[in-house]
Amino acid sequence: MGQQTITRATIFDVAQRASVSIKTVSRVVNREPNVREKTRAKVEQAIAELQYRPDSSARNLARQKSHLIGLVYDDPAAYELPSSGYIIRLQQGALRACRASMHELLIHPCNFRERGVGAALKSVIEDARLAGIVLAPPLSNMMRLVRAVQETGTPFVRISPGQKIRNHMCVATNDAQATAEIVDHLASLGHKKIGFVTGDETHAAVTNRFEGFQMGLDRNGLRLSAKRIVSGNNSFASGEQAAAKLLALADRPTAIVCANDDMAAGVVRQAKKLGLSLPDELSVTGFDDVVLARQILPTLTTVRQPLSRMAERAVEMLLKGKRGSQHEIVSAELQLRDSTGPAPS
Fold first, then answer.
1. Backbone region of residue 57 per phi and psi (left: phi > 0; alpha: psi in -120 to 50; beta: other values)
2. Contact (Cβ atoms closer than 8 angstroms) between residue 299 and residue 339
3. b or e along 97-127 (b: 16 or more beta carbons within 10 Å of the residue's beta carbon)?
4. Please, which residues have CB within 8 angstroms of residue 120's CB and are 6 or more apart in sequence?
């Protein structure tokens, strides 16, 4: 019995199926304007039915740009206990947008602590001839890396850069407002002594969560106590250490708000080591809604950061050829779970 040969569909096949010219198919594949929506839909249907995949080398030669979008993020290998869920959600959103437009995604972990990281990033962008870049936090607020990308002339969008910069595109979430809503929730449960574990100061968006914490205290008539503010670095271990300090206070907090879920999980562990019952004696909240937040006991009250949607929108902005100052907010959502309850009497 002979081996069956699988014939790959060509651009000629697509043109014939859709009853259009080869040039029209090429315009649709390359996302060019001046194609009627009815015609575009007919060509895209033919592409799907024939499972046509454009020849990447031919497209690159024709346009001198690859059909690659680069997702550049902080290298998880630089952390003792990296959180894979954060990166996976970014990738999922970026991939959705890339696949919808017949682009590919190049993922590039970038250790911003290394010397020469800007030059290395420029080399990656230029060698791959990337069509666009998505810069994830904390890289998105590091101007030496932003400048390195700018020098290549490649369009880019920053995710959660912490602050807006003129003539830059970015997608962010409402970190401060969402954290204030956490404080509203705790205040409604009768908590008056609320502690806060801050995040890594290199993550500008994370520092916005402390501003939201202060905002929440103010609007609920609660006093900010410096001794109940402890620094963390976004890691599980720093959450444990912060909890040890806060729970050793003579007038310890009845609730602890953390700038991310990993630190909140560390707080939960330390509280259990001390024999505290959660949430009867202590309420704990996080931010991000990583998988860990639903795995620990008690399950964690947190804020679901729309990372996947933010990455998807960033790629869509690039593919639509947007330029200049465009800032989009994708709202986060409070997730109420078992780690918060009424303040102990």
1. alpha
2. yes
3. bbeeebbebbebebebeeeebbeebbebbee
4. 110, 114
Longest Cα–Cα distance of the chain, Å, equals: 83
Measured between alpha carbons, how far is 70 from 62 in angstroms, rounded to an integer? 20
The answer to whether 134 and 145 are in contact (CB under 8 A) is no
How many of the other CB atoms lie within 10 Å of CB of 85? 17
Per-residue pLDDT of the chain (345 residues; tens, 9 = 90+): 444 445 678 888 888 999 988 878 877 877 766 788 889 899 889 888 888 877 654 455 445 556 899 999 988 766 655 566 788 899 999 999 998 888 999 999 988 888 888 888 998 888 888 999 999 988 998 888 999 999 988 999 999 987 766 678 999 999 999 999 999 999 999 999 999 999 988 777 788 999 999 999 999 999 999 999 999 988 899 999 999 999 999 999 999 999 999 999 999 999 999 999 999 999 999 999 988 899 999 999 999 999 999 999 999 999 887 666 688 999 999 999 999 999 998
